[in-house]
Structure of AcrR family transcriptional regulator:
Amino acid sequence: MEDMRQTILEAALAIADERGLDAVSMRAVGLRVGLSAMALYPHVSSKEALLDGMVEVLLTELVPLAGVDHPAGQESDPAAVGGDAGEEWWQRLVALAQAARKLAGRHPSAFTLLLSRPSVTPEALRATDALYQTILDAGVPDDQVARVERLLSTFVMGFAASEVNGRFSRGTLTPRSRRTQLAPAQLPAHYRLAAHLDDEIDFDAEFEADLTDLRILLDSIRSSPA
């Protein structure tokens, strides 16, 4: 029964990859796996449960993609993520952040579920717990861990989703074309920043710089009195 549930969830993810998240329905998934929509319910009790399961599949794909997955109670190898023992927690966070960008590229439509639904299934909770543990290993006070997790995950997932789904793209107008629709007096900041806004953006470099800034913020939280 668990194997069929996994098959159903993977079929839902494949539909989202091919046709977008709006195409995912109990009927469409049933057709994909050769079952009626009603026959799915013993395995996935509702459309909401199906979406929660897709979150689970995404998160369980994320951790191995980062290359930092290791059994509970065992130390991960710092060299595997390019750090030393004292920085191992940060290397884990960086690896997870980079893996999230890769995951978004693989599943651009379904990835937005990570910004709209909580982790509620057991396997999804295990993935979230691994992130909580990494933040604890960083020395963040217990009462700040959930807040820091929201801060980090919202930035990383928001950046990744924006990058693959078009928010960061040039769109239908170049920055200059957008700007010149209005006079300088109406868009003073745009005109002042014109030379910078017109530059091509290296999103890899920008992401790395953003992570560096987040590290500075995280260090300030770690050093705060408990």
